[in-house]
Design goal:
It is a single chain. The protein is α/β, with parallel strands linked by helices. Helix content is 29%, strand content 22%. The protein contains eight helices and 14 strands. The strands form three sheets. It has a six-stranded mixed beta sheet, covered by helices on one side. A six-stranded mixed beta sheet has the order 6-7-8-9-13-12. Helix 8 links the parallel strand 8 and strand 9.
Length: 287
């Protein structure tokens, strides 16, 4: 009798696991679009941005035609990318990311910052070869790579800054402390009268970004926590921390905001539950 009950439980568990795996595989190929509206008196002219992150060589349709079509429907003033368009693994081609950036850059202004995959492929060339060099050289004429640099949209009074931080701040298991002075020394001077958007791949340092002066932080990296559970949120981050504080959505700290996308792809465990790949649409409006 006990053996029969255990057998039934095991069979039920296997069926549930198979259902989750099938659902995850299906969800990985579905796109969602989330809209956020932010008002600020410094914004002189309304602007709409499409924001993505963590492509990791994912493809939606042939050569990402589905993804490009969705972005064209948004008709953004610019596309903002918060890092990790490639997979930072040896001998993994950046071709998918290059093709997407070239196509988007032919249609819209594109502003992009490095994620940890771009950072490490550029830093450790003996291990990763010329992946970063190929990506940068073949996209620099189509996308504005903001590597601790800024771009100013003068007509809209908007400053966009891209952060490329040290590898220490991407370590797994524990959070490396970051001081505001680190950003002051690393990044361009913030324009006091401008609305400042910071492309910062890792959301864990949101409060530090806000203290530096970012009015809006755009991040990725966490992949939505892979599995999103009701009442609990995202389950695990790439830093191998359970139930991360920031996983997906909009967050606020001292009147500064962060929009954290669930990302588009994956690189090791391509697993998603209740967490569809996401394009964020950001509407900036003056008060």
């Amino acid at each position: 009798m006990l053996f029969d009950i255990i057998s039934i439980i095991c069979i039920f568990a296997i069926i549930c696991l198979c259902a989750v795996l099938i659902g995850s595989r299906r969800e990985n190929h579905m796109l969602s679009v989330s809209h956020y509206t932010i008002t600020d008196k410094r914004i002189k002219k309304s602007a709409t941005f499409a924001m993505i992150a963590d492509l990791h060589n994912a493809e939606y349709g042939d050569k990402n035609e589905k993804l490009i079509k969705e972005i064209k429907k948004i008709a953004p003033d610019a596309v903002l990318i918060a890092g990790d368009v490639i997979v930072g693994k040896k001998d993994v081609s950046p071709g998918v990311a290059i093709d997407l950036l070239q196509k988007l850059g032919s249609e819209f202004p594109v502003y992009i910052s490095k994620g940890n995959h771009e950072m490490r492929t550029g830093l450790y060339t003996e291990q990763y070869g010329d992946i970063w060099e190929c990506l940068y050289e073949q996209t620099k004429d189509y996308a504005h790579w903001l590597i601790n640099e800024e771009a100013t949209l003068a007509s809209d009074n908007i400053q966009i800054v891209g952060l490329d931080m040290d590898a220490a701040y991407y370590r797994r298991f524990r959070l490396q402390k970051m001081e505001t002075d680190y950003l002051v020394k690393l990044l361009p001077t913030r324009h006091q009268n401008a609305y400042t958007i910071l492309l910062a791949h890792n959301p864990d340092y949101f409060s530090v970004y806000a203290e530096w002066g970012a009015d809006l932080v755009l991040s990725g990296h966490v992949h939505g926590g892979m599995i999103i559970l009701p009442f609990f949120g995202g389950v695990i981050s790439p830093m191998v921390r359970l139930f991360p504080k920031y996983y997906r959505g909009m967050y606020e700290y001292r009147n500064k905001k962060m929009i954290l996308t669930g990302g588009l792809g994956g690189h090791t465990l391509k697993f998603r539950v209740n967490n569809k790949p996401e394009i964020c649409v950001i509407h900036l409006e003056g008060e």
